[in-house]
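2024-03-11 09:14:02 INFO worker-7 job=invfold-0412 stage=load source=structure_tokens
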């Protein structure tokens, strides 16, 4: 074995009359570090079926894991999940792949890198602790639009899902409804319809079909989604990039939404728009994202996103609350709000400005969900909250969100 460089990026192997350039765990791990250090949006493995997905040489998916694993004290484990606070838990690391064989026939793959190390069965085993818990799998990569566009691929995906869900005794699936274009969205409606009918035909009428969609997604048939789906997971977490106003010495961010040509809608107003357009309130679940978006303030009156301000998570251009709360505690920050409703807090320090969530803001979102009669609230994600209790009791955001929504049960 050897290297073609000094940076640990290009390994090779030599034997007899053969010489091979390849990737190993060290080289892809170093590439992942470079992506994180340069603030890139992410890393992309091409392709999943070329990794050791069968675990023939050790643990399955060694290269993919080297790219994405969080290690050390911030490693999040299934045992860290506070199931007492949850009615549903969504596993969001399932990958959808499309393998094309020599005869040009596509083969749908559902790839779970945790399966080989027992993580998947540990996830399924949570129901032995809390039998009423609902366990869902989420497919969030853009390939879903390609699969949905072909009837035979939709059929194959549904067959794979049914087999997978039955094996692990799961309760539903969540699809990411991205901005794929009108034609792709038509195909997604068909996929949802066929999922529901196929689940019933397979003897699983209670399996849930849900989608994750942004609140300001344009051109959606709200009533049709309300009829087809068990729940609609609506996210109101857009970019909150600060701007300087006229003669202002402190920037602020827009915390309002533009939906179908209607501008400057509050969260309450945007949710009401969905309801008025035919999506029943008792099918809407409000998604709250536990991230901080950090920007550098530059003169004269300009702002620049900071992609490497935090180390948690190590695969995204944002900060987890677990790290931001520690930064807030270690130095002086000036706290403020971008709205008058207590939904959009920000923090300012010298030349740094951060939009984030705190206990008050997520609590207010839980109250709105309760007051509007929504089906529930959805924390994204558990490993972004202060799950280690670094700044006080563990899971402060989740507890505030859950507690404010669940007051309707107490009342």
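2024-03-11 09:14:09 INFO worker-7 stage=emit residues=411
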């Amino acid at each position: 074995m050897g290297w073609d460089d000094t940076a640990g990026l290009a390994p090779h192997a030599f034997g007899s009359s053969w010489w091979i350039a390849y990737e190993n765990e060290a080289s892809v791990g170093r590439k992942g570090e470079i992506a994180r250090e340069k603030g890139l949006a992410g890393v992309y493995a091409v392709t999943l079926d070329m990794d050791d997905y069968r675990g023939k040489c050790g643990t399955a998916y060694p290269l993919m894991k080297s790219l994405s694993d969080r290690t050390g004290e911030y490693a999040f484990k299934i045992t860290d999940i506070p199931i007492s606070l949850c009615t549903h838990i969504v596993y969001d690391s399932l990958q959808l792949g499309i393998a094309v064989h020599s005869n040009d026939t596509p083969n749908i793959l559902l790839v779970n890198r945790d399966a080989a190390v027992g993580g998947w069965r540990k996830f399924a085993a949570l129901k032995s602790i809390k039998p009423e818990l609902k366990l869902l799998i989420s497919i969030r990569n853009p390939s879903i639009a390609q699969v949905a566009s072909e009837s035979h691929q939709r059929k194959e995906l549904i067959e794979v899902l049914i087999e997978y869900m039955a094996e692990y005794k799961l309760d539903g699936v969540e699809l990411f409804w991205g901005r794929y274009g009108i034609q792709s969205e038509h195909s997604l409606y068909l996929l949802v319809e066929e999922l529901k009918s196929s689940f019933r035909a397979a003897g699983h009428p209670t399996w849930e079909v849900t989608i994750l969609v942004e609140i300001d997604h344009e051109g959606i048939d709200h009533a049709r989604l309300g009829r087809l789906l068990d729940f609609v997971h609506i996210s109101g977490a857009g970019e909150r990039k600060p701007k300087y106003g006229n003669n202002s010495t402190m920037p602020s961010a827009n915390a309002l939404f533009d939906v179908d040509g209607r501008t400057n809608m509050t969260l309450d107003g945007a949710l009401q728009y969905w309801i008025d357009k035919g999506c029943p309130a008792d099918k809407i679940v409000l998604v709250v994202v536990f991230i901080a978006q950090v920007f550098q303030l530059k003169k004269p009156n300009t702002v620049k996103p900071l992609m490497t301000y935090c180390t948690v998570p190590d695969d995204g251009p944002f900060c987890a609350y677990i790290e931001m709360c520690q930064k807030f505690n270690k130095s002086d920050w000036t706290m403020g709000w971008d709205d008058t409703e207590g939904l959009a807090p920000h923090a300012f320090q010298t030349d740094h400005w951060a939009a984030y969530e705190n206990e008050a803001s997520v609590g207010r979102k839980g109250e709105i969900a309760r007051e509007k009669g929504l089906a529930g609230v959805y924390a994204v994600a558990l490993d972004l909250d202060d799950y280690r209790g670094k700044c006080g009791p563990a899971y402060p955001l989740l507890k505030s969100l859950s507690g404010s929504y669940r007051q309707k049960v107490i009342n």
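2024-03-11 09:14:09 INFO worker-7 stage=report msg="The mean pLDDT is 83."
2024-03-11 09:14:10 INFO worker-7 job finished
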